[in-house]
Amino acid sequence: MTGWTDPSALGYSALFGGVLIGSIVPIVPTGAVVGAAAAIAVSNGSMSLPLVLLLSVVGALLGDFATFAVAHAGSSAAQRWVTGRQSPERLAAARAQFERRGGVIIVIGRLMPAGRIPVLLAAGALEYPWRRLVPAATLGCVLWAIAYAALGVLSGGLFDDPVLATLLAALLVLVLAGVGSLVSAWLRRRRARSGAVR
């Protein structure tokens, strides 16, 4: 039995806390935290990769639930954020989209850079039901944790030194997030242009 001063215990606490806080308030690069922990797990064995995945999923899921709950409980700020910028027709279309494909939207929102919080706030403000949110958010968090842990495993497999593996994992995550943001922006501009043409 190890104490809380053990390096691996501190690593697990930092992993869980970083992912949980970053999933509520986007001030912590959660993907980089998961990638770094996975890199450490495979480069020097001081952490367990299955436990890294489990803590990442649980921290991300609790953070997503908290974000959704704030909007779903009728937070006036979240309601204004969703309804204040949209016409009644667009709000009706958004509700219809969540009715038809809400689960897919939530999973994709979790995987897309900067997509998770807007999707969860919109889902909560539009009163998407918890019974449908929970399985979709769980799947999204599992896929997200596996993807970022895989980047960490890749970097940890290249370097035995946990510091180099961690740095490479964080760099890979940041590059991937940057590419994802560029692709998202390009797709938004393309949709806006095609909508203007119609």
Biggest sheet descriptor: none
Mean pLDDT reading:
78
Shape: globular
- Based on CA atoms alone, the radius of gyration comes out at 19 Å
Distance between the amino and carboxyl termini? 66 Å
Strand content: under 5%
Number of helices: 8
Helix content: over 70%
Report low-confidence residues grouped into runs of 5 or more.
1-5
**Helix-and-strand structural type:** mainly alpha
Describe the 3D structure:
The chain is mostly helical and 198 residues long. 83% of the residues lie in helices and 0% in strands. It has eight helices and no strands. Helix 2 runs antiparallel to helix 3 (49-72). The longest helix has 36 residues, at 162-197. Mean pLDDT is 78; it is low at 1-5.
Could you give a short description of this structure?
This protein has 198 residues and is mainly α.
List keywords for this structure.
198 residues; mainly alpha; disordered N terminus
Question: What's the layout of helices and strands?
Answer:
Elements: H1 7-24, H2 30-44, H3 49-72, H4 76-83, H5 88-111, H6 116-125, H7 130-158, H8 162-197
